[in-house]
Each structure stands twice: as C-alpha cells, then as structure tokens.
Amino acid sequence: MTSTMFDVCIIGAGPAGLSLAKLLSGQGRTIAILLGAKTLVNQIAKVSDAGAKKALVKFEQQHKRATLPLYLGTNAIAKLYADDRMPARVVRSAGLRAANLLKPMKRKVVSRLMNA
C-alpha cells in the first residue's frame, strides 16, 4: 500500500474547512479534507485498539474511494481558475452561467460539500 503525506488534514468540508483549504492550498500546501469522520469512528468501534492498523487501513481505502470524485473535480477547477488564457476564461464563464441554471445540481453539490 502506498501512502501520501499531506501538510494539513482538515476535518469536515463545511464553510470553515473549505475556506481554510482554499487559503492553505493557495500557499502551496498539500491538503487532505476528511469527510468520513463517521466512517472512521465506525471502523475504530469494531476493534479494541483505536490505533489498530487494520481499522485505519480499511478507513483509508473507503475514504479514498468516497472522496476521489471530489478530489478530481476540485483539482480540475483549481487548474481551470489558475489558467489565465482565453479558452480557460471562456470555459469558466460558461460553467458559471450553466451552474446558475442548474439549481438542483447546485444544491446537491453544496449538500455534499457541507456533509448534509
């Protein structure tokens, strides 16, 4: 199994967590946002040792699967907003207009980010 080192781990993807992640990633820090606190607690509850490697490894696998779409989407958006060329500006503008037209999808994304 490979492991990744992060500079910061933020627990929760609510407004404060996402604001902190944005601030720190802008400073070049690598960020891990922990969305699955309930999953971690459930895994630890199944074993007598809270630091049991087996429970933590299983949580890590579940967490990576669950957060991969958010991770990939966030990276794509960050790259798009870091690109100042005309094609990127056009795509950003079109994307924002489309997002404003898709209210149910917008609510679903916000709900997912807020852990609701």
Write the layout of secondary structure elements.
Elements: E1 8-11, H1 15-26, E2 31-34, H2 37-45, H3 53-82, H4 86-101, H5 103-113
Helix pairs in contact: 2-3
Task: Explain what this protein looks like in three dimensions.
The chain has 116 residues and is mainly alpha-helical. 67% of the residues lie in helices and 7% in strands. It is built from 5 helices and 2 strands, in the order E-H-E-H-H-H-H. It has helices at 15-26, 37-45, 53-82, 86-101, 103-113; strands at residues 8-11, 31-34. Strands 1-2 form a two-stranded parallel sheet. Strand 1, helix 1 (15-26) and strand 2 form a beta-alpha-beta unit. The longest helix is centred in the middle third of the chain and has 30 residues, at 53-82. It is elongated and about 55 Å long. The chain starts with 7 loop residues before the first strand and ends with a helix.
Features:
single chain, 116 residues, mainly alpha, two-stranded parallel ribbon
**Count of helical stretches:** 5
**How large is the share of residues in beta strands?**
5-15%
Number of strands: 2
**Largest pleated sheet:** 2 strands, parallel
Q: Which whole number gives the mean pLDDT?
A: 78
